[in-house]
Write a structure and sequence with these properties.
single chain, alpha+beta, OB fold (Dihydrolipoamide Acetyltransferase, E2P), five-stranded mixed β-barrel, two-stranded antiparallel ribbon, 10 strands, 21% helix, elongated, TIGR03943 family protein, UPF0703_membrane_permease, DUF1980_C, transmembrane
């Protein structure tokens, strides 16, 4: 007949529970503070909330079992206890790093090792066909773009994008994906562009690249995307400063532009899109700093 003894403290189960609790706090920290948007695409946030809930349930279940009733039975010293080992410390590393180190969105430092994986429109789909100009705002004659000379996508296989109202916010990814389909929607038109500053080495003081990263899933697949900005005081803004730039899109010849990763997406001609700024406003980093790259089907 088995005799009941006092409950036994299970050190291994306790350590398991603490590790699970650490992961739960780790996830909740990023979700509650918004730091998660510096790491993953917004559509994944709901999945991380679910994951945090699952970890919370597992934590509660594990910690509720740290005291186990012990019976005397004929197992000759055999123990059912889970013993913690040094290898468990490996599981604590991401928790400690995530809780201690601050989280930042990707910045210009990433460009020192960035690969030239910026998506580019297919060259064979480009011609020099003329397009019908949209209503143009007044601009200096040397900044006006002759729409009959800019590259334009051939044929009717590309659907016209939505024409945003002049003066509204224009995401950089929309500019990149649509400028060949409807160049008349963008050139000679004034929009607002948002991104952070990048000064390529050797650039003149009145130019900068306004940059953002596109991601499909997380920062591991980030692609830098930018547009040249001309502004008299461009040099006073440091790398990684976020700006909203209001300006008119024109064309400029830029030396070695195809070697500058964020603006290498436009390789159709020697002249590259450039925003001639009318107003520049420093802003805080947006809650969602990345653009969403379409996921291939």
């Amino acid at each position: 007949m088995s005799a009941m003894k006092s409950p036994k403290f299970e050190a291994g189960t306790f350590v398991q529970g603490v590790i699970l609790l650490g992961f739960t706090i780790f996830l909740l920290k990023f979700l509650v503070t918004g730091g998660v948007y510096a790491l993953v695409a917004p559509y994944l946030v709901v999945l991380l909330w679910i994951t945090a809930g699952v970890f919370g349930v597992l934590t509660f279940f594990t910690l509720s079992r740290i005291f186990r009733p012990v019976q005397e039975h004929d197992h000759h010293g055999h123990s059912h206890s889970v013993k913690p080992g040094l290898r468990w410390l490996v599981l604590t590393a991401p928790v400690v790093v995530g809780l201690v180190l601050p989280t930042h969105a990707l910045g210009t430092a990433m460009l020192t090792t960035a690969l030239k994986n910026t998506p580019r429109p297919p060259v064979e789909a480009v011609s020099q066909k003329a397009t019908q100009p949209a209503a143009q705002e007044s601009a200096p004659s040397d900044d006006l773009v002759d729409l009959s000379t800019v590259p334009h996508a051939d044929g009717g296989e590309y659907e016209k994008p939505v024409h945003r109202p002049v003066g509204s916010d224009l995401p950089l990814d929309e500019l990149m994906f649509n400028i060949l389909v409807a160049p008349e929607y963008y050139y000679n038109q004034t929009y607002q562009y948002t991104g952070f500053v990048y000064h390529p080495p050797g650039w003149p003081q009145n130019r900068l690249v306004l940059l953002r990263y596109m991601i499909s899933c997380c920062t591991a697949d980030a692609t830098p995307l930018g547009v040249t900005v001309e502004w008299k005081d461009a040099d006073k803004y440091k790398n990684d400063q976020w700006l909203t730039v209001e300006g008119t899109l024109s064309l400029r010849e830029i030396a070695d532009a195809d070697e500058i990763v964020p603006i290498a997406w436009y390789q159709m001609s020697k002249k590259k899109p450039a925003v001639i700024a009318k107003n520049v406003k420093p802003i805080d980093e947006p809650k969602i700093p990345y653009l969403g790259k379409p996921v291939s089907k």
